[in-house]
Design brief:
The protein is mainly α. The protein has five helices and no strands. The chain folds into two domains: 82 residues; 36 residues, no CATH class. 73% of the residues lie in helices and 0% in strands. The two termini are 40 Å apart.
């Protein structure tokens, strides 16, 4: 038996029905598409800002403002890419049957939390308890 199969068998399986899993898959795919659209938009704005930066500025402050805008866009793109990674991991959990199970406690994640944060891997209680342990 492959290591992935053993790992999947040792993890608690989802408490969600096929219909619920389909709903969350659609929700996650929609959020991923929105995030990709945002990245495309920000990338276009970044390219425009870089082209403008190549031109002559009338004042040094304009150059600083432009540089700050480009840096902000770059950070926002990176953040969206990270978010897409979380969404992709959630889709993998749907596929392997562990979606909706807290990775810290093994308890079911409430559907309300999954609706609000469909890529979450933890219950609120487990996340707070983990945060307390770390501090």
């Amino acid at each position: 038996m492959a290591a992935n199969e053993k790992q999947a068998q040792s993890q608690p399986q989802t408490h969600l029905s096929e219909k619920e899993l389909s709903h969350f898959r659609d929700l996650i795919i929609s959020k991923r598409a929105d995030a990709c659209d945002e990245i495309d938009s920000m990338t276009s704005r970044l390219e425009d800002a870089q082209e403008q930066a190549a031109g002559y500025h009338y004042h040094m402050a304009d150059g600083g403002t432009d540089a700050m805008e480009r840096e902000k866009l770059t950070m926002m793109i990176a953040r969206q890419q990270k978010y897409i990674g979380y969404l992709n991991r959630a889709l993998k959990r749907i596929d392997n049957g562990t979606y909706g199970i807290c990775k810290l406690s093994g308890e079911p994640i409430p559907k309300e939390r999954l609706e609000a944060v469909p890529h979450t891997e933890t219950t609120v209680a487990a996340k707070l308890a983990d945060k307390k342990k770390r501090h």
